[in-house]
Amino acid sequence: MSLTIAGESFGSRLILGTGGASSLAALEEAITASGTELVTVALRRIDTAATMGGGLLDLLGRCGVRLLPNTAGCYTATEAVKVAHLARDAFETSWVKLEVIGDERTLLPDGVELIRAAEELVSDGFTVLPYTTDDPILARRLADVGCAAVMPAGAPIGSGLGITNPHHITLIRQSVEVPVILDAGIGTASDAALAMELGCDGVLLASAVTRAADPGRMAAAMRHAVEAGWLAAGAGRIPRRFHALASTPDEGRPDL
Amino acid sequence: MNVVLNGTAHVLPDGATVAEAVAVATDRTRGVAVAVNGEVVPRTGWPGAVLRDGDQIEVLTAAQGG
Predict the structure, then answer these.
(1) Using one digit for the tens of pLDDT, what is the confidence trace for B38-62?
(2) Which candidate in B10, B32, B46, B64 is best for mutational testing of the A interface (most A CBs within 10 A)?
(3) Distance from CA of B29 to the nearest CA of A (A)
(4) Does B60 reach chain A within 8 Å, measured CB to CB?
(5) CA dihedral A114, A171, A184, A91 (to 10 degrees)
(6) End-to-end Cα, chain A, rounded Å
(7) Pairing, β B39-41 against β B32-36
(8) Which stretches within A198-237 are classed as H helix?
(9) Which of B64, B39, B56, B63 is nearest to B4 (CA)?
(10) Which of A12, A83, A13, A9 is nearest to A45 (CA)?
(11) Radius of gyration over alpha carbons of chain A, in Å?
(12) Is A86 within 8 Å of B35 when comparing Cβ atoms?
C-alpha cells in the first residue's frame, strides 16, 4: 500500500491539504482520521497567520506528519521560486508543492511559468511536486525536467466537480514514470476511488474534507476510498458487457 | 529609521538587524522565513543582516493551505 516519492515511503496514498479547516481542532481530527503522513502548508505573513502559525506547526508536529509547503497564490515562476526558497528556510524541507496559477477565476496552472519554475527549483536541489493541468504532454515535460511526481487537477481547486477528464488522467499515468497524484477537484469519496482506479498513485485533497459538514467523517471516507480504489486498480476489473452474463450456471436446473 | 514590516510602517533603531525585526513581529524563530526587498535572507544570516531606511521586510510562517 505504500507510496514512494523521491525515495521516501509513505504508508498512506492520501495527501491532505490543510486549507479551509474551520479550526485547528477540526483539522487535527481530519488528519488523524485520514491516516495521511504528508500534509500541505502555505507560507503567509506572520501577523495574518498569528492564530494559525505556531499552533499549526505544533499540531502538525504532534500528528507526526511530514510537511509539503506549497507556493499557493503565485502567478509567476520568479515569485514561486522565491516562496519555495523561503519555505525551505522556514520548514527545513526541500520538498515543495509547486503551484503557479494562471488566473483567479479558474486557479488552473500556467503551464509555461510552471515549467520554468520547476526547472529552476530542480536545479536548486528541490524535490518538486507540481500541481499541473490534466494535459499529458505538459505532465511529461514536467517529469522530463526532473519533477519527483506530477499532480494533475481533476477539476478546478475547490470546485468539487470530481475528475472531468478521466481519459487524460489515464494517459498521464501512461506518459510518465514518476508517481501521479490526482490533485484538486475531488468532491466526495467516489471521486478519490476513481482517481486510484484510473491508475493514480495517490490523491491530494483539502476542501473535500475540510469544508465537509463533518470533516472527520469525510476524512475517514477518503482514507477508505483511496485504499479501495488502489486495491481495485490492482485487482483486474471485469470487462464491461452490453448484455447480462449469468453468474449462476444453467446446468443442473430442475424441470418443474 | 523607517521600515515596512509585513506591509505596515515601523520605526527601528539605526543599525537594526533582520534578527531584531523578526523579534518585533514574533517571539518564535522556528517555522519562520524572511525576505528583505523581495530577496530571501536565510536564517543563519539574520543576526548579521543590517537593515537600511526604507527596507521592506516580510516575516512569514506556516498558514493553512491546500
Answers:
(1) 999 999 999 999 999 999 999 999 9
(2) B64
(3) 9
(4) yes
(5) -50
(6) 51
(7) antiparallel
(8) 207-210, 215-235
(9) B56
(10) A83
(11) 20
(12) yes
Burial of B7 (0-12, 13-18, 19+ CB in 10 A): exposed
Radius of gyration of chain B (CA): 11
Question: Does A63 lie at the interface with B, CB-CB under 8 angstroms?
Answer: no
pTM greater than 0.95 (yes/no): no
Q: How far apart are CA A188 and CA B9, in angstroms?
A: 45
Which of A113, A52, A104, A51 minimizes the C-alpha distance to A83? A113
Read off the C-alpha cell for A22: 474551520
In three-state secondary structure terms, A93 is: coil
Give residue A141's identity as a one-letter amino acid code.
R
Please indicate if any CB of chain A lies within 8 Å of the CB of B50: no
Cell numbers of B9, please?
510602517
CB A139 within 8 A of CB A170: no
Per-residue pLDDT reduced to its tens digit, B14-34: 999 999 999 999 988 889 999
pLDDT at A54: 66
Q: Which residue numbers in chain A have pLDDT < 70?
A: 48-54
B6 to A45, B56, B58: CA distances (angstroms): 6, 8, 5
Angle between helices A189-197 and A215-235 (to 10 degrees): 20
CA A58 to chain centre: 23
